[in-house]
């Protein structure tokens, strides 16, 4: 691909960025730029999408396993949670299995994990300390991304199969929770003494992001004038996050963090832009700057 094809987004010419159809990507960005920020909304996964996969060579924690590494959590929790992760995570990563085959196993994993959390009698204060001491980090450049979406009142929906309370705490500690942001995730339920007693509502797992209440609410309906969507995810299940939304232009950006050789062709087939082993939001920010007509040096 000639470099001039993406003079508007230099980051798309990098060797770790892959596209099946560069011309489609170019035309979509140009159309979004022409339409302006009033037509734009962003829908993003959290774990290993807005947050890092690795930091300084070490694998970072997801929302769920920040609990496993915490001194606050009892040993019985850490032992059982590790067994669950070692059992079910390979199933999630296995591209030889269909989503239909994986889904019952994902539900089992989440149910067992949530039951295990409930036995630990966590408090809201515990969550704050657990996150502060964890290895969960927002990607480099995430602050810029969040700030500029807020400045232009562009809605940011964070749709996660993780734990909403932990996502909020990570963002509050490392960035800022603005009023243009909405998080849809698994939220803990606390009693009137502040002790965790379970989880609210239906389980959100990696493969049912198109079935959650957000899709039967008026969220996307209220934003139907914002029919240009940037979708950010790191798994194939994330592709379903915008089902039910009014869409004229959709750009699907995927982060491929591991098993690159085995997964790249599949990711290129499903995502319009695939970013390989990059712990920043530089490529996303480059695209965003082009759409918002912000000079690249800012």
TrEMBL record:
<keyword id="KW-0547">Nucleotide-binding</keyword>
<dbReference type="GO" id="GO:0009117">
    <property type="term" value="P:nucleotide metabolic process"/>
</dbReference>
<dbReference type="Pfam" id="PF05822">
    <property type="entry name" value="UMPH-1"/>
</dbReference>
<dbReference type="GO" id="GO:0000287">
    <property type="term" value="F:magnesium ion binding"/>
</dbReference>
<dbReference type="GO" id="GO:0005737">
    <property type="term" value="C:cytoplasm"/>
</dbReference>
<dbReference type="InterPro" id="IPR006434">
    <property type="entry name" value="Pyrimidine_nucleotidase_eu"/>
</dbReference>
<keyword id="KW-0546">Nucleotide metabolism</keyword>
<keyword id="KW-0479">Metal-binding</keyword>
<protein>
    <recommendedName>
        <fullName>5'-nucleotidase</fullName>
        <ecNumber>3.1.3.5</ecNumber>
    </recommendedName>
</protein>
<keyword id="KW-0378">Hydrolase</keyword>
<comment type="similarity">
    <text>Belongs to the pyrimidine 5'-nucleotidase family.</text>
</comment>
<keyword id="KW-0460">Magnesium</keyword>
<dbReference type="InterPro" id="IPR036412">
    <property type="entry name" value="HAD-like_sf"/>
</dbReference>
<dbReference type="GO" id="GO:0008253">
    <property type="term" value="F:5'-nucleotidase activity"/>
</dbReference>
<dbReference type="InterPro" id="IPR023214">
    <property type="entry name" value="HAD_sf"/>
</dbReference>
<keyword id="KW-0963">Cytoplasm</keyword>
<dbReference type="GO" id="GO:0000166">
    <property type="term" value="F:nucleotide binding"/>
</dbReference>
């Amino acid at each position: 691909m000639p470099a001039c094809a993406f003079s508007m987004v230099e980051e798309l010419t990098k060797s770790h960025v892959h596209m099946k159809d560069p011309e489609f990507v170019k035309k979509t960005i140009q159309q979004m730029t022409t339409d302006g920020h009033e037509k734009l909304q962003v829908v993003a996964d959290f774990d290993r999408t807005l947050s890092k996969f690795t930091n300084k060579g070490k694998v970072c924690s997801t929302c769920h396993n920040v609990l496993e590494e915490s001194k606050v959590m009892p040993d019985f929790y850490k032992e059982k949670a590790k067994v669950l992760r070692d059992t079910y995570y390979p199933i999630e990563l296995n591209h030889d299995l269909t989503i239909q085959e994986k889904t019952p196993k994902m539900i089992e994993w989440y149910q067992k994990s949530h039951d295990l959390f409930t036995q630990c009698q966590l408090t809201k204060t515990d969550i704050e300390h657990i996150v502060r001491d964890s290895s969960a980090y927002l990607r480099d450049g995430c602050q810029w991304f969040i700030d500029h979406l807020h400045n232009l009142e562009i809605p940011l929906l964070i749709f996660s199969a993780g734990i909403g309370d932990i996502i909020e705490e990570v963002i509050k500690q490392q960035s800022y929770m603005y009023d243009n942001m909405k998080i849809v995730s698994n939220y803990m339920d606390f009693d009137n003494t502040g002790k965790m007693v379970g989880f609210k509502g239906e389980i959100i797992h990696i493969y049912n992001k198109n079935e959650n209440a957000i899709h039967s609410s008026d969220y996307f309906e209220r934003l139907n004038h914002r029919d240009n969507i940037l979708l950010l995810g790191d798994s194939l299940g994330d592709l379903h996050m915008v089902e039910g939304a009014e869409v004229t232009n959709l750009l699907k950006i995927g982060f491929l963090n591991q098993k690159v050789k085995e997964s790249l062709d599949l990711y290129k087939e499903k995502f319009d832009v695939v970013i390989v082993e990059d712990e920043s939001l530089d490529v996303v920010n480059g695209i965003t700057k082009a759409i918002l007509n912000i000079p690249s040096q800012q």
